[in-house]
């Protein structure tokens, strides 16, 4: 990946498009937003693959991320809380919890930062009627 100076930050060209990164939201995505997005996106992708392999059908998945940062340590990310909301018919919470555990073990972004950032996952299951 190559990065180039741009107005207020840096820019890179990726296969999906251009990405602007800046400490100022007026000029691009903030680095901490990209870090949290990487963790949530990786976790969601791996979770979905696991559900597909287990043949567990879901209608919707939403992940909310809360971030805690340490202002006295250059705003270092200290905690990321991921809250999974899974909607579907006949879902079993225990199966989904086990799938989240497996996803955690197989998400490269979580594995990369888990020794320096506390990552917690919570689960909410919404069973829809047929």
UniProtKB/TrEMBL annotation:
A Pfam family that the UniProt record links to this protein: OsmC
InterPro entries: KH_dom-like_a/b (IPR015946), OsmC/Ohr_fam (IPR003718), OsmC/Ohrsf (IPR036102)
Protein name, UniProt field: Uncharacterized OsmC-related protein
